[in-house]
Design brief:
By secondary structure, this protein is of the alpha/beta class. About 40% of the residues lie in helices and about 20% in strands. The structure holds NADPH dihydro-nicotinamide-adenine-dinucleotide phosphate (NDP) and the ligand O=C(O)C1=N[C@H](C(=O)O)C[C@H](O)C1. One of its GO terms (biological process) is diaminopimelate biosynthetic process.
Length: about 280
């Protein structure tokens, strides 16, 4: 499908993930919208890869979305903002009739789905992780749980995740993997996930390379042990930087645009749907 007039509004710039996604939009030759939603403490304008972007603070968000809808008839919104902004932003996108890809974690996904269901013609991808290989790992864990429910009954688990200190919430990816482990028979609560946000521990315990400690990393370890300690499994997914998520985000944008063009009945997709469609680069 031709994407010549497909425009992408990336909300959350100049945050780390939104900036990486905006750069990927330009790199793929799509139109990067010249306006974006941002948080309360932001300046008015930034430049990303030669595109000047006007930033709207929270009190102007809805007007900005309506303006962009008029300006860009074929628009998809990308959201990498803050856990506290995820649900209010989704309500605004649905009310403005805008389709969107949201990677922001920590929101109430079921409330998001309700908002979308009430907005005909609005399509969305909602996923805590856009990295192709991590999405494949999540899918594999989910398939194992569906195929062999209870296979790990009685086992114990320790989950540790390390991210940059500015990350506000517990890893959304770890929460989704824990849900699969629970289907496999474990009894693990998400508040047992150990969050590492201390730079020294990230380096010494989780082996995060020093150059990625502050700028962005996502290291996850799941250690599973049998009741008598005689059997151990360890699963890890460790990512430095943001490129893998940015690439998946723009794959999701193009996939969603194609669903909208063909008037698909289903409105909400996960990254596993996109991986299955063969549309991830
Ligand atoms: N799905 C995925 O693959 C991935 C998801 N993420 C998720 O993306 C989110 C953002 O992460 P990251 O980029 O590292 O965070 P950052 O803190 O670097 O950036 C967040 C940005 O959002 C802005 N912001 C805050 N409130 C709003 C609002 N109401 N509307 C618009 N913008 C707002 C912030 O502005 P201010 O500073 O003024 O508050 C800041 O610029 C997190 O939830 C993270 O878990 C991250 C990586 C991959
Ligand atoms: O905030 C991050 O950095 C990340 N957030 C996502 C999550 O919470 O799962 C994905 C990845 O862990 C990076």
């Amino acid at each position: 499908m031709l994407h010549d007039d497909l425009a992408v509004m990336v909300n959350g710039v100049p945050g780390k993930m939104a900036t990486a996604a905006a750069e990927e939009v330009v790199h793929r030759g799509l139109i990067l919208a010249d306006e974006a939603l941002t948080g309360p403490d932001m300046r008015d304008k930034i430049e990303i890869n030669g595109v000047q972007i006007r930033l709207s603070p929270p009190e102007e968000h809805f007007a900005c979305l309506q303006r962009c809808r008029e300006k860009y008839p074929r628009l998809i919104v990308v959201d990498y903002t803050h856990p506290s902004a995820a649900n209010p932003n989704v309500r605004n996108y649905a009310s403005a009739g805008l389709s969107f890809v949201i990677g922001t974690t920590g929101g109430d996904v079921s409330a998001m789905k309700d908002a979308i269901a009430g907005a005909p013609g609005v399509y969305a991808v909602i996923a805590p992780n856009m990295g192709k290989q991590i999405v494949a790992f999540q899918a594999m864990m989910d398939m194992m749980a569906t195929e062999f429910p209870g296979a790990f009954a009685g086992y114990k688990m320790v989950v540790k995740e390390s991210h940059q200190a500015t990350k506000a919430d517990t890893s959304g990816t770890a929460k989704s993997v824990v849900a699969s482990f629970n289907k496999l028979g474990l009894n693990f609560q998400v508040d047992e996930i150990e969050k590492v946000r201390d730079e020294e521990r990230s380096v010494n315990e989780m082996h995060v390379p020093q150059e990625h400690v502050k700028s962005g990393h996502a290291f996850h370890t799941y250690h599973v042990t049998s009741p008598d300690g005689s059997v151990n499994f360890e699963f890890q997914h460790n990512v430095c930087g943001r490129l893998v998520y940015a690439a998946g985000t723009v794959d999701a944008v193009q996939f969603l645009d194609a669903q909208r063009q063909k008037g698909e009945e289903k409105q909400v997709f996960s990254m596993i749907d996109i991986l299955r469609s063969g549309e991830m680069s």
